[in-house]
Amino acid sequence: MKISTVAGMGAAIAGLAFLPLPAQAGFYGGDALYETCSTPKDSKDYFERSYECVGYISGAVDAFNTTREANGLKSCIPANVTISDLRKTTVDYLSRNPKDRAANSASSQVFAAIRKAWPCKAAPQGKKKPSRKRR
C-alpha cells in the first residue's frame, strides 16, 4: 500500500469524526449498570464488577448529594444507610423497571431508585408576608 493511500484513508477516517451522531443520554446506560451489578458470585470477574457497581452507585449518589448541597438542600438519604443498602435498592429498582433501564442513563436510574426508596420531604411552606400595595 502506498503512503498516499494510507494518508488518504487516514484523512477519510478523521473526516468521520465530524459526522453528526445521535447523542447518548449518559456515559453508562441502565442496562449496563444492571448487568454489572447482577454478575453472578461464581463468575471469574465478580469482584471486579462488584466494585465497579458499588463505585458507580456511590459516585452517582455523591453527585446528587453535592448538587442538593449546592442548592442549599440536605441529603434525603438517612445517615444509617450503607453502600450495600444503596446497591440493593438500585439493583432491585433496575430489575423491576427493565424498560426504564433500557431507555435511560445509569445515573438517572440510580437517582430514581434512591428517590423512590428515600423520598425528600417537601420543604415547609412559610407564611407569606402580606403584600403592600403602593399607591
Automatic annotation (TrEMBL):
Entry-linked Pfam families: Rap1a
Record's keyword annotation contains Transmembrane: no
Statement: the UniProt record of this protein carries the keyword Cell cycle: no
Keyword set, alphabetical order: Signal
Signal peptide limits: 1-25
Domain (Rap1a immunity protein) ranges: 30-120
Descriptive protein name: Rap1a/Tai family immunity protein
Organism: Sphingobium olei
